[in-house]
Amino acid sequence: MERITRFRAIAMLLAFALILGLFSVRMYAVQMLGAGDVVADSDLYTTYYTVKAARGELLDRNGNVMVGNRASYNLVFNNFVLTNSDDPNGHLLRLIRMADQLGVEYIENFPVTETRPYEYTLAEQSAAWQGYFQDYLWELDIDSDISASRLMEALRSRYKIPDSWSDEDARAVIGLRYELKLRTDITNLSSYVFLEDVPDDILNAILELNVPGLDAAASTKREYYTTYAAHILGTYSKMDPDDWEIYKELGYKMDDKVGKSGLEKAFEEYLHGTDGRLARVVDKNGNIVSQYYVKEPVAGHNVETSIDLNLQIVAEEAMKQVHDELTAQESGSGSDIQGMAVVVMDTRTGEVLACASYPTYNPATFNQDWDQLRVDPMKPTLNRALQEIYPPGSTYKVAMSIAGLETQTISRYTEIEDKGIFTKYPGNSPRCLIYTRNGRTHGYLNVAGALEDSCNYFYYVLGDRMDWDDVDAVAKTLGLGEPTGIELGERIGQRANEETKKKKYSGSDAHWYAMDQVLASIGQSDHLYTPMQLCSYVAAVANKGTRYSATFLKRVVSADYSNLVEENTREVLSVTEMSNDTVETIFEGMRRVVTSGSGASAFRGFDVEVCGKTGTAEHGTGGSSNGAFICFAPMDDPEIAVAVYGEKAGSGGHMAKVARIILEYYFSADELSDVVTYENKVG
């Protein structure tokens, strides 16, 4: 009896150990097997979901969110639950018909036309997606040379699609089966997202279908919190083939989104987070048994830009105001004004406080408005501040004056008599503007007086006296025709010199003549610069020759704003030697421009001492001349520089009005904060 009892006890212990062992194996499989691994002898399945990391926010220097994220929902598939349901194809067809009924376009990349005669559309896809398709054929043991029609027949059979179904319905369902197969067994693409950013009414309507394996997944949607700064904020969307060649080496997935332009692109490395991976154990009915993060998502960093959003708004509205005033004239100089641009910079750091182009557009509706925007003759999508190059006109005379003084070709006291017409070289006799208008001259002028009156004759003589290499060297170190260091793509422009002329022309036209030097001295000839370069240039003058790298970056902070990731430090790009005597002379001349010269009417009654220079430039396309104005303030301790440019604006004096409005706001507003108050951010 004792032996029987002992035997039964041992048998029970062995049975218990066996059950415990089987349970342990099952639990190990549930937790440790990879995506697509079915747990042996069970109805459980472990699948993985990509959890998209939130993208970092773009803020202005005061903590206002310019581009951020809002909560949204995507419709995501679990292929295991769908394929183990009673009628996978029928469920998918119901889903497709509901999407058509609701008027929504779902995401699908199957490279075959939607109707007969079937043809491949691989040529419209990237190399990566073409590769995925070849992998799909290999996985299904289908010849890669198969015709599109034969492939459709094979897949109808493979997926057991009823013969009674129409070709269109069969093709639509096969498209979804293709996506699910790719993401489950073949590629490392993210989980299949059927619809992105689904509105509540559509979400509810589709979920009511109870399609097995189709779930709503929380996500985020990029959103603009301002209608301003469109040209610099940029766009964010899925990669194209060229993007993929760049980002695949950085661990991105083919269907990831990236910054495509503007600050979104420039600061991609900070804004882009690291996606997470969620393991979910489900039964064949789609019930979740357990879930856990294999890898938690890490949100991108927040980028605090140098932009002051309020100042940006003021700059854009000022351009619109002056543009409307000029066009309201109906006739006269500047009435045919076209595009404009303005750049505002902190002279002490190179930080760009505002950068605007006119006309502009709403960044939030860019995609919807594209068809209209691209045919608009005013080119509202063109970033004129960075991507258009213009002749500087008389704004170049500041560089010319510095070169003359520093080479001691002239002193601050040297006087040159304005004779109205420069006749040294027969056959080409340029005139001073005042002489052209009323036959008068400026008489004898020193450098400060020549800047004040913008006397062309003075600079004809000065340019003729100088070695142009000396002039060009000064213009170069002041940043004209040189990269500004800005993070966004910019056109570099060109300085008028012998090298530029040889590149542009051929034969005798490529020779650098004495008259080229004379005309270049007043900012004509082959000079072409962006408004960003003009602002960097005048900021360098304000800094007594030190030119800092232009930047849109103030600092980068962690997603929760608790840690400083990176902070911008000013970088010196070049230094122009300027003696105290040169500085005093240039500042005096530029100050007189806005007190009694061509910019005086715009700054009448303004309390802050502003130093500026107007420019009126010929452009050869008919209509009014272009207008430019550069300035800095205050005179005794410069902290802000402004450059304004107007296509066919008539004169630099008109552009000075834009600068006046900007400076009024800057010096009357509350002190620009160097500390971001994140809890008060917009949005």
Features:
about 675 residues; alpha+beta; Penicillin-binding protein 2a (Domain 2); Beta-lactamase; seven-stranded mixed sheet; five-stranded antiparallel sheet; 25 helices; about 40% helix; about 20% strand; disordered N terminus
Summarize the SSE layout with pairings.
Elements: H1 2-32, E1 37-38, E2 44-51, E3 58-59, E4 65-77, H2 79-83, H3 88-102, H4 127-139, H5 148-158, H6 167-186, E5 193-195, H7 200-207, E6 214-224, H8 230-233, E7 236-238, H9 241-247, E8 257-259, H10 262-266, H11 268-271, E9 276-283, E10 288-295, E11 302-305, H12 309-327, E12 340-346, E13 352-358, H13 366-373, H14 384-387, H15 397-406, E14 416-418, H16 433-438, E15 443-445, H17 447-453, H18 456-465, H19 468-477, H20 498-504, H21 514-520, H22 531-542, E16 546-548, E17 553-557, E18 564-567, E19 572-575, H23 580-595, H24 600-603, E20 611-617, E21 626-633, E22 640-646, H25 652-668
Parallel strand pairs: 3-11
Antiparallel strand pairs: 1-2, 2-9, 3-4, 4-5, 4-6, 7-8, 9-10, 11-17, 12-13, 12-22, 14-15, 16-19, 17-18, 20-21, 21-22
Helix pairs in contact: 3-6, 4-6, 12-25, 15-19, 15-23, 17-23, 18-21
Explain the overall architecture.
The structure is a single chain. The chain contains 25 helices and 22 strands. The strands form six sheets. Strands 3, 4, 5, 6, 11, 17 and 18 form a seven-stranded mixed β-sheet that branches. A five-stranded antiparallel β-sheet has the order 13-12-22-21-20, with helices on both faces. It has a four-stranded antiparallel β-sheet with strand order 1-2-9-10, covered by helices on one side. It starts with a helix and ends in a 15-residue tail after the last helix. It has two domains: 30-305, Penicillin-binding protein 2a (Domain 2); 309-363 and 382-671, DD-peptidase/beta-lactamase superfamily (Beta-lactamase), CATH 3.40.710.10. Helix 17 packs parallel to helix 23. With 683 residues, the chain is α+β, with helices and mostly antiparallel strands. Mean pLDDT is 90; it is low at 1-7, 15-41 and 671-683.
